Fold:
Amino acid sequence: MSTTPARFTRPTAEPTGENEVRNSPLEVRPPTPDALCIESPLASLETAVTPTSHFFVRNHFAVPHIDLRDWRLAIEGEVDRPLLLTYEEIRNLPHRPLRALIECAGNSRSSVRPHPEGVLWRNGAVGTAEWVGTPLRDLLERAKIRPGAVEVLFEGLDHGKEPGLDAEISYGMSITADKALDPDTLLVDEMNGQPLSARHGFPLRAIVPGWYGMASVKWLSRIVVLQQPFEGYFRTRAYAFISEGESAEARHRPVTSVRVKSLVTWPKEGSVLAPGAHRIRGVAWSGVGRIARVEVSIGGLRESLEEETWLPAVLSEPESRHAWTHWEFARELTRPGFYVIRARATDEKGNTQPLEAKWNFRGLGNNSVHQVPLEVRAKASPRAK
Ligand code: MTE
Structure:
């Protein structure tokens, strides 16, 4: 069998009106006090770019009120020439577009057993947007970043109490100095052709493509170049892989790159399909490389995962290094009964999805194979596609 998959081109980059109707409303997850957590229905992941109205939201605290007249971005720490910039000054810097995906590290937490700590996202805490911004690297070079820099800390203006903490904290997250100097790491002021909305980080946010969403800090106020790794709550507790029974370092690792993953976007879990030919659809991504292949298996409810037959899906042309790849899989489902569709992606570095989630205390980075149970039944609705 050929290792180069056939590819198709998605007909439109923007969602159609039909999608808008089919995808609403968004689902709200139970928030911690003042927080806002909204996930996208899987049907709204079928377009190249997720409309802002349908893009997931993950806010730990209330959206801060920001008056642009007072707002400044400070760049300081291990730099020879600290900067303090107004919104106007940032808008006048050279900008570039970047189509990139963000996935929350807690996405798909609800399918981890036993249930870990945190918001029980299903699979919709992921989206791709067209961002416009200025490379962080340009500003770090202008500020004369020192050679000893190890990490770069982003501080947001939002603050509040996290569950289990007595004192208020503000949102802060660091990335490695290498990632901060990557030309694709941007300070962004536009999303999908509009200035950032309040809930997505107005006036300025980081976009760190390839890393889980916690690094794309919103409502930025300060960027601090550090000589030591940042030890704040969000870096070492909220977004760290914490597990038992391994060496001290392995037990406590910061969350960074997005793991390879795919989701079935059609049919929905629990669907009833008419017997006939069906085109199964989905989406796949990885933070460390292109999607090399997606395999689909359609098995019975009780079949063990190892026994299944995995067949290649047809992939869409990737639209950007940091965006997702859509896929399709045509199959005759003529025999009435109960089935489970499973999809498994592999990236160009050879990373592939595990069949089961590896447990950690916060259920982070769950990229286990998506499983969609459904029934094929005569006279069922919706009709075969
Ligand atoms: N930045 C600030 N200041 N406060 C936050 O709560 N949440 C982070 C990140 N940036 C967060 C933040 C997390 S966990 C994710 S997944 C992304 O924002 C979500 O971005 P979105 O809400 O624009 O989709």
